[in-house]
Amino acid sequence: MRILGFESSCDETAVSVVEYIDGRIHLLSDVVASQVEIHRLYGGVVPEIASRAHIEAISRITEEALERAGVTLSQIDAVAVTSHPGLIGALLVAVSFAKGLAYSHRLPLVEVDHMKAHVAASYLGENAPEPPFIAVALSGGHTSIYLVKSYTEYELLGCTRDDAIGEAFDKIGRVIGIPYPAGAGFDRLADQGFRLATSLEEGYRQAYAASPACADKELYLPTPATKDDTLDFSFSGLKTAAINLLHRYEMKGEELNLPLFAAKYTHEVVEAVANKVGKALDRHAVTSLVVCGGVAANSHLRDRLGRLCEEKGVTLCLPPLKLCGDNGAMVAAQGVYEYLSGQRATTALNARATDD
Ligand code: KG4
Ligand code: ZN
Question: What's this model's pTM, rounded to 2 decimal places?
Answer without folding.
Answer: 0.93
